[in-house]
Amino acid sequence: MRGRLRALALMIVLLQGCRGANPAAAGFIDQTQHTDAELWALWHAAQQNLSQQIDMNPLQRTQSNVPAQILPGDPRVWSVSPRQLTVAPQPDVSSAVVLAATGMNRPDPTGLIACPQPCNVSYTAAYSSYAQNASRYAASWEFAGNNFDTLVQYEFENQILHGLGYDMRWR
User: Cβ(155)–Cβ(162) under 8 Å?
Assistant: First the structure.
């Protein structure tokens, strides 16, 4: 009987080890050249911004003359954590591709990546994919100082707002 109990206990321990990491655990899948601590600081800054006010249509305002849709801050932002959120660079699209697709002439590196549907634009500096639980940015921004921080913080704001059920159409 003791032998069977030991075998059962050993099997349970082995099976527990085979489960792998908890996919719902808070944190990042950090594929950047920045530390997890830096990403957490940007996440907390995003929470701070959204706790004060929420700009619901910055992208729409760049494309047409519409008034800003500013909402009061939402205290629920403090309850949202990244859940194995992938943060990763993507290679910049070439200036030739941007020129052919948009007629816009930009030097290489362009600072742009293709933005998959349902994006409102074809190319962007960064985007978030909620289906893939990822925020991606053009690789050339990796060491662009505060520009990297601004891009990633904005995408973290988008992740937080999406997690709270906000309409992300013009973010």
Answer: no
CA distances from 78 to 23, 27, 45, 50, 161 (A): 21, 15, 11, 9, 11
Burial 95-109 (b: 16+ CB within 10 A, else e): beebeeeeeeebeee
User: Token pair of 79, please?
Assistant: 């309850």
Amino acid identity, position 98: V
pLDDT digits (tens, 9 = 90+) for 41-68: 999 999 999 999 999 999 999 989 999 9
Indicate if the pLDDT at residue 148 is higher than 50.
yes
1 HSE (CA, 13 A, CB side): 0
- Contact between residue 32 and residue 39 where contact means Cβ atoms under 8 Å apart: yes
